[in-house]
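WARN no homologs supplied; continuing
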Amino acid sequence: MIVSVDARSAVPVFEQLRAQIERLIASGQLPSGSVLPPIRHLAADLGLARGTVHKVYDALAREGLVESAGRHGTIVLDGARVTTTANDLAAAADTVALVVRQLGLDPGAAHRAVDEALARL
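OK structure emitted
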């Protein structure tokens, strides 16, 4: 599972991680039956508190996207219930634009950064 968080972002790390995992499920990159990384491993990999990752997993469970299987981990449920729309992309673009404005960056630099991120991922 490829996720990352940016502690400098205006978007809280909890929301960054929750949204990324939700998108991975919605896109089928995390298909039904996949096991999410253990909380302690993902927290260590991302440099987060275990409680933050636990809250993300709990939020995804409340949304019906995953379920805890006890010592067998957290299992992805049927992602077909998640729908992504052009509005989701627009909301993500709004977030990027907000961060660019808050940091006082040049819009051209933001465009280049998005292009580089798309090429990297």
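The first strand starts at residue 35 and ends at 36.
OK
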